[in-house]
Amino acid sequence: MSTSSTVTEVVSGYADHLWSRDVSEHTARAYVSDVSDFLDHAVHSTKLRLGSGDGQSAKSSGARIDIAAVELDDLRSWLIALDDAGAAKSTVARKIAAVRSFFAYGVSNLGLPNNPAARLRTPKKDSRLPTVLKPQQAADLISAAERSRGAQRDTRSSQSDGSAPTDTDTGDSTTGDSAQQGKNDPLDAAKRIRDAAILEMLYATAVRVSELTGLDRSDIDHRASMITVLGKGNKERRVPFGTPARQALEDWLAARELLAGPRSGDALFLGVRGGRIGARQVRELVHRYGSDDPSSPDIGPHGLRHSAATHMLDRGADLRQIQELLGHSTMSSTQIYTQVSMQRLQDTYRRAHPRA
Description:
The structure is a single chain. Mean pLDDT is 82; it is low at 49-61, 151-171 and 173-182. By secondary structure, the chain is mainly alpha-helical. The longest helix has 21 residues, at 89-109. Strand 5 and strand 6 (236-240) form a beta hairpin. The protein has a three-stranded antiparallel sheet with strand order 1-3-2. The chain has a three-stranded antiparallel sheet with strand order 4-5-6, with no helix packed on it. The chain has 15 helices and six strands.
């Protein structure tokens, strides 16, 4: 492919390049979208546009563009437009990484003389600290789901009629006053047992939600109380979990067959349709169980990950060990938890010390 092609051809070639390099699906999708966004901006420049098909945006037209003519000012113009639109610094940083990757691909594969994005400066991320739960708040959140495990005995003694579930994964958990009803419904009981295991495992292992939903039963080492997760960059790591999580996991595995179906495969956690549960459903159930306590911050699965790391640091865990547990590639990502712990110490001091 030459440097002068339709936008569709350019983006398609870059997408194929990303897939060939085993880039994660999430990253590849984001980078392709970001590059398309830049080309959509750039194609309206008379210097870059060579002609168009239907006059629509670059994302949907046959517009031709000469990417060899892209200069630093064209990229800066795009970034200014993003800033004017109120894009977050983290979003801008990702988009800069995407166009750097794209033009590096152009240099290596399309004969571009240089990478104009190499000189872009990445904006510093906002120094906002992550929201975390207090240890008791985390315990209360998990207890809200753990109470449902009392239904497990009823679940084991009940016989499923074998009919396929007709509801969706969205809002499929039973909480509060409907708990008794769930004891009389094997499917509801199984969902609540699953929810308890998910919350226990999220907090016990501090894994990302994508890592949790990607777990298979074969990834569990029951004897060592360890799981093998596939993290960012397709890097595997082993993560331990404790006794409460092990018990919750055993309860779920005993009830799993009630939700299992032809689409289940070896997936550890299932939705009510029998397929692997999705990240969105996990986020919804975390928010749902945490909504009963008005004093507790509303967090998602990543908030439980932040909370677990902070609580371990507060109780004397080594920062390097926390880095390994979380699967951070650099220590700088882990060091934010020292700031969280220091902030909590300062808050406690101001509240408790008579001369604060």
